[in-house]
Design brief:
By secondary structure, the chain is of the alpha+beta class. The protein is built from 7 helices and 5 strands. A 5-stranded mixed sheet has the order 1-2-5-3-4.
Length: about 220
Amino acid sequence: MDDLHDSDSSSVWAIFSDLMAALVGILVLVLVWVIGIQLELSQSLEEEKARRVAEEQRRQALEEALADPLASGRVTFRDGRIGISGSVLFQLNSDQLQPEGEELLRDLAKPLQVFLDQHDELLMVSGFTDDLPIQRGNRRYQDNWGLSAQRALTVTRTLINQGMPADQVFAAAFGPHQPVVPNDSDTTRAQNRRVELTTVPRQGAKVSTAQHASQAEGADGNG
């Protein structure tokens, strides 16, 4: 009987040992998995932190490059976008650059080119209008799409004429879309009539160029 009891006890202890070993193995696997997740999260956080630091340094560098135009109040700088009032560049419903606008673009061209060269980026010139339809009798444009596109092209060509390489700049048109403020008064509509200059990475610019080229084809002839 004692031998049988000892045998049963040994079997129970063997099973218990196997279960404990299995449990320890599972706990080790879980621990390794948790450590792996923590390392992944830590790496992701470090990468995100580095990205934000680089973006902030990039923004500060661009702001420093545009110190004079910003100080004079001729341009605005918000969320990495350089804004120029449409009234500074063009008369209402016109795509012909005014002398004041040409002078401003001449002042912007050199610091922008230096920044683009240093950061290997491109410049996107975006045209925007208010929500009012093109004035009657204006046969040049059917609606605001065409007007915003031509204004963006006018600014783009002017920057190129001022010495910016043609492969560093491209144009995009947004028409009355993406206003910065609601179009509910003459004052706010004047704010929405604008041109924005935005620096973009070369890889991202290829995608943006294709997208806006497609939009321009679909909206050909708009004002």
